[in-house]
Amino acid sequence: MSDTPVIGVLALQGDVREHLIALASADALARPVRRPEELAEVDGLVIPGGESTTMSKLATLFGMLEPLRERVRAGMPVYGTCAGMILLADKILDPRSGQETVGGIDMIVRRNAFGRQNESFEAAVEVAGIGGGPVEGVFIRAPWVESVGAGAEVIAEHGGHIVAVRQGNALATSFHPELTGDHRVHALFVDMVRAKG
Description:
Blueprint: E1 6-10, H1 16-25, E2 29-33, H2 36-39, E3 44-47, H3 52-61, H4 65-73, E4 78-81, H5 83-88, E5 89-92, E6 105-110, E7 121-125, E8 135-139, E9 144-148, E10 153-158, E11 161-167, E12 170-173, H6 184-196
Parallel strand pairs: 1-2, 1-3, 3-4, 4-12, 5-6
Antiparallel strand pairs: 6-9, 7-8, 10-11, 11-12
């Protein structure tokens, strides 16, 4: 891998374009990923926000769920925001019928924990490992993490709830940093991908 890692954004549903812009601004070569052969060509992957149940069904439909699980198990760096966080959880507290996860982080998440769409909000969040003050987080029907296992490290909380977790090469936030113009979380992820290279 060169100094410019190739990072995919899972482009089945959700705010793909904003992640591509944020990754490019953090010096990565960013590209959308929809098929297993595209997944095979990237050094790391972002799973964006969207609707976690729909994303899980589309991943199955596009033949992406098993390849995603295999790459994550094999240590590919992966970053999930909002619905992406739900997909990276080993367990969902209140899954919809037929909803599956990719897994990779030993955590239990609660879907839509911060409320409905009209209860969306922005908040300053202190994230361990990111300097320069708090990150502006946009919470849209956001999940939170009910609990983490021994392997997972809590790197941010908001209102007494866990909103960012890291485990090995996997990173997850309940909020959307890609919607704020502050690309420090993406820069942290790009550094994780470089370190893995």
